[in-house]
Structure formats: structure tokens, C-alpha cells
Amino acid sequence: MDYAVPGPEPQTPSGIDIPELVTADMTRSSDPGRPGQYPFTRGIFPDGYRGRLWTFRQYSGFGTAEDSNQRYRFLLGQGQTGLSVALDLPTQVGLDPVDSMARPEIGKVGVSLSNLAEAEVLFNNIDLGRISTSFTINGTAAIIYAMYIAVADKMGVPRHRLTGTIQNDILKEYVARGTWIFPVGPSMRLICDTILYSNEVTPRFNPISIAGAHVRDAGATAVEELGYTLANGLTYVDELKRRGGDVEKFAKRLSFFFYVHMDLFEEVCKFRAARRIWARLLKTRYGVQDSKALAFRFGVVCGGSSLVAPQPYNNIVRVTVETMAAVLGGAQSIFTCAFDEAFQIPTEFSAEIALRTQQIIAYESGIGRTVDPLGGSYFVEYLTGRMEEETLRVMQEIEDYGGVRKAIEDGWLQMRIARRAFDRKQKIDSGATTVVGQNAFRHTDQKDEVGAVFALDPQAAGNVVRKYEEVLRRRDAARVDETLTCLQSAAASDDVNLIPYLVDCCHAYATVGEMVSCLKEVWGEFQEPVRL
Amino acid sequence: MSAGNVSPLRGKRILIAKPGLDGHDVGAKVISLALRDAGAEVIYTGLRKTPEYVARVATEEGVDAVGLSLLSGSHKELVRDVMQQLESFRAGALPVFVGGTIPQSDREYLLGLGVKEVFTADMPLDHIVAALSRALA
Question: Which of A436, A497, A506, B27 is the most buried (most CB within 10 A)?
Fold first, then answer.
């Protein structure tokens, strides 16, 4: 049944009322400042994309390291400018492929990376001295970071030349993504160890990407996404300081990650507000002075739950709108989802179109030619100010509740997100929110999925297990035991940085599962509060 | 929801489960809230449960139906394992529903295992409630 389609709603999806016309007198601040200058509303670099284009960084990975290596080389060959590694669920939650819970999940949502031998295959023929790699990994981030260092060592790439990002953001895992392992305290320790070690040894690497993306995809509004992310950011800053970090130094390498959904102006203003709020918070709360430490750097993903399975080619249009929002908002790196990601892993065909979307916008549309082209628009300055106000309100609510950590451990944040998702679903079901092809303009004989079906090699899981067993056979078992014992005893004392121990374990071909088991013995596991 | 019956699932106990390692629980939680609104008593397992755990809780709690939420692509293996576990707990007749990221090409396989219906994110909640209500009548 088709619902009558109304004109644009008067509110943004976050619930902000928008006047039919915005005039000059409606904006509080008439001067949005200059890009590259505090508080960076217009951007963090004075020359924007003319100085440096955003990175085309497509999230990708499946099956064996060989399969993924092949897909990475295809994407790099097609013009992608940075790697983004998707890891399978066993790797993400710290289980080896032979674990009974791991077997059905091997290689499904990402590549299986259980030990250094797999990492060597994954990056075969890829020059880690030149290509930057982003890893979406959280519970086992410290381990995968250590493995990246170990593989660079083996390739002869000096550690200080490594570039890239590791997501390493456990707070959002507890709330929206679910790959937590250890309780909050020890998890925060691992995050901080990774950041502080990286600042010294891999100074060009971003050891954290504080992500609102997942709470957004789980149903939070753009305002909540920003509010929760910045609240998490401050929580990490406080913990890093508590552990002796110098905020002027580590803040330079904090980065952020967001979704871009369909309301173009809300997204652009979200990013402008984000830069302004973060710079102001760091300056007023922590006294940060250095521009580089105040600059809010972020990557984005365009797509996710804004894409739908019915009439999937429409998703190409959606991702295009979202990419434009990301560029107009000044993102440093962009991942564009393929049109079929609403129901499967992308094929080469759909992955290529996703990449071309960015390239067409970059090289044909001209929208990146000048910094913050929408700056000065009455509406954009108005909405930026409103997004800022609402975001600060969300952050205050969390403070009033007792802070991020309490909100997570009580299950309070999780419940809010679930309720918000329920609201959103009800609005779509009732037709109050229009989703073209899903609740409006449907075909009566709806063919929901089109195009090639992605097929994971049915041998992949067996191959992964076989290779894993081979590594166990060939490695020096005594050396592995030694490195794991050292890791475990270091973990027991809170003020030792664990990264060097993890690097040693990786070099000995200890597995992700073995390292995690070691740490579970010391720290235990997180107990999920189930609260609806 | 149908105009005639405000609580189409009143008196029903339904288990919503997350077997396997997938950590995305929004769908499971949204369904749980919708079923609760429709009058059902809902037990949600939380993340990262084994098929054996799901079957055991289903039988211990004496539920009327089991809903499995799967978004990691491992639905064929995990649904099969849950169905086998339910058999071994002598609950093979318990109606099982699946929701999540299920390509159309896999629906037949799941229905062939004995799953009553497969739901995807684009389906309206009252369609899902109505389907459950019919199946449990």
C-alpha cells in the first residue's frame, strides 16, 4: 500500500525545527571564523581539499587473508587511496578459528586474522611505508595494532613511517556494536596503552577513532551521535591524563568517525558543530593551546542503515547525497557503502560503483574546490548553532546521569538507543518518515534484491583452519609460552604498557585467541546488562 | 496493529535470542519492544549465546516461540544448530522465527529447516506481530 507522500517535514530527523525561511538576524554568530583557526567551524585546514583531498577508504575484507589481499589490490588498482580492513567476528571478539563459537563465523563479516602469518599474507605486495591502513577493531585493537607493527618489522618498514588508524574505541562497543571482551576498566587501560605507545613509536598513526557511527546506525539521531561521541572522547581524554598522558601531545592523534545519513544539511552542520564544540571543550576544560591538538579530524561512512534492500539501485543515489554532505562538511576520509550492502557483502561490481561515486564527486562536481563552501549561508550558520546547542544538551544529560561509564554499566545508554530505534521504526512503518521504495513508491511485484549474489568461497573456513593448525605446528612453542607468560604478568600490574609484550607475542606467532585468553584470566569478561 | 485486538500476543511468552558472535542488537531489541507492546512477555537473551544456550533457555522458560536475530551472514549454520539443539531438548515442535540480514536466496533453505517465517528490516512491525499471532493462535 502506498502512503500519501507529504512535502518536507518541518523538523530535521534529530527533531530540530527549521523555519521555512532563515534570515540573517536568526543566526547568533554572524562570523563563522576562518578555517584552520580556532574554533575551526569552517574547517581544520586553511586550504581544505585543495591542500589535500580526502582519502577514499573503502571498508573491505572477507574470507582468507589471500581473498582479502586480492580485493585490496583490486581497490587500490581502481584508485582507492587508503586501506580499511574489515575483520571477522572471531578476530574481533578474540576467538581463534577453531573455537566452537567461531567456526560458523570465520571470514563472514571480515577477514580472519588470527596470527602474524595471516597478516603477512594480508599485506603481501602492499607497501606499508606508503599506504595507510585503517582497522575497524576494538576489543582486540591492541593486539591487531601490535600485529601491524610486527608485520611492518618483518617487511622492513620502519615503525615511525607507519600511517593509518585503528578504531580502538571500546566505549561504543558496550553500547552499540557488541565486540567487547573485558570489563570497562581493563579495556580502557588497553585503549590508553595503545594510544600512548603509538604517540611515541608510530607518531604518524592515529591510535583511536572515536566513533559515533555505530550508535547512529543503531538508531540514535545525528545530535545524539555527536553528543555520545564527544562524551566518549572526553572520557578517553580524562583517562589518558590520569595515566600520565600530555593532552597537548595525545590530542593531536585523536580522531573521530561518523555516519552520514540522508539529511544533507543536518550532516554538514553536525560536522561544523563538532569541530567547534571539541575545540572549545579542549581549550576551556584542559587548557589546550596547540592548533594541531585542537583540530577535530574525522572519517565517515556513507550508507549503513540509511540504505534499504527494496529497489537497491536507489542506494547509489542515497550514497551520492551522503558523500556530498561529507565533502561539504569537510571529512578527512570517506567510505562509501555499495548499493547491495543492505543485504550482502559487496561484489566487485558494486564495490567499484561505490568507489566511483567518490571519484566523480572529487573530480567532476567541483564542490571541494573551496573550503566550507556553505559557510556564511544564513541557514547553515543557524543550523550549526542549533546542532551545537542540542549536542551540548545531550552531553549534559549524560553528565547528569553520572557520566559515560555509569551510563554504560547500568545499561542506560543502551536502552535509550533501543527506544530511539523503536521510534524510528514506528515512524517508518506509519509513513511519517518516507523511505522511497520501502514505504513509498513500492512496486506491487517487488523484487527486493538485484544483481550478482556475493558468494563467499565455501572452502574459506576450512582453509583458515588448516593454515592456523599449520602455524601452530611450525612455531616455537616454548617461545610462545614465554611471551604469553610475560604478557600475563605484565597485565596484572596496571602501570605497565602492554604493547611491547603484545608485539613480542605476535612475533612468536602467538594467536589472537591465546593472547585474549591470557588477558581474560587476569581481567575476567564484561557482563552485559540486559535492559529494555 | 489490527484495530480489533490491542494485545494480539497477550499471554504468549517469546524468547528473542542472539546466537553466535554478532554484536548488533538493535533489531532484536526493537522486536522485543514491539512484542511487549503487543502483550507478549519477552525474554531477551543478550549477545553472544550458543545454540545450546538458546535451546536450553527456551525449554526452561517454557516459551511459546523463539525468535533468532542474525546479521553476520552465519544464519544457515546457526539456525540449523539451534533447530538441532531444540530437537535434543525435545522442543522440536517449538515455532522458530528468524530475523536479520537474510538474502532472499537463503530464505528457502531456512524455511526448509522448519523455520516458520523469515523477517527482514524493511518489514513493518505490525506485519511481524500479526504473523506471530497467527502462528501461535
Answer: A506
Residues of B in contact with A101 (CB under 8 A): 20-21, 48, 50
Average pLDDT value for residue range A97-108: 96
Q: What are the pLDDT digits (tens) for A434-478?
A: 999 999 999 877 666 666 778 888 899 999 999 999 999 999 999
Residues of chain B positioned with their CB less than 8 A from the CB of A423: none
pLDDT at B1: 47
User: Facing residues of A299 across strands?
Assistant: A257, A333
CA distance A504 to A506: 5
Query: Which positions ≥6 away from A369 have C-beta within 8 Å?
Result: A49, A50
Which residues of chain B are within 8 Å of residue A179 when distances are taken between CB atoms? Answer: 23
Strand partners, B15: B43, B66
3-state DSSP assignment of residue B15: strand
Contact map slice: B 67-96 vs A, CB within 8 A: 72-74, 77-78, 81
pLDDT, one tens digit per residue, over B64-115 is 999 999 988 899 999 999 999 999 999 999 999 999 988 888 999 999 999 9
Distance from CA of B130 to the nearest CA of A (A): 14
| pLDDT given for residue A30 in this prediction | 61
Nearest to B103 among A421, A425, A453 (CB): A453
- CA-nearest of A519, A477, A470 to A118 is A470
**What's the order of all strands across the beta sheet hosting B13-17?**
B41-44, B13-17, B65-70, B96-100, B117-119
Residue A454 has a pLDDT of 80
| Span A13-41, average pLDDT | 91
Q: What dihedral angle (degrees, nearest 10) is formed by the CA atoms of B97, B103, B106, B112?
A: 30
Q: What is the mean pLDDT of residues B108-132?
A: 94
Query: What Å distances lie between residue A282 and A31, A397, B126, CA to CA?
Result: 21, 19, 47
- Looking at residue A420, its pLDDT comes to 94
Instruction: Return all residues near A452 (Cβ < 8 A) that are at least 6 apart.
Output: A347, A349, A350
Give the phi and the psi of residue A341 in degrees, each rounded to 5. Answer: -70, -5
Nearest residue, CB atoms, A104 vs list B24, B26, B78: B78
Q: Point out which residues pair with A86 in neighbouring strands.
A: A136
Residue A506 confidence (pLDDT):
98
Cβ neighbours of B123 (radius 10 Å): 15
pLDDT at A319 over 60: yes
Beta bridge partners of A360: none
| C-alpha closest to that of B115 among B132, B90, B133, B137 | B132
- The alpha-carbon gap from A428 to the nearest alpha carbon of chain B, in Å, equals 8
**pTM, two decimal places:** 0.94
Cβ contact (<8 Å) for A425 and B30?
A: yes
* A-chain residues near B122 (CB < 8 A): 308-310, 438, 448
Nearest to A438 among B36, B104, B122 (CB): B122
Contact A62, A85 (CB under 8 A): no
Examine the pLDDT at A401 and tell me if it is beyond 80: yes
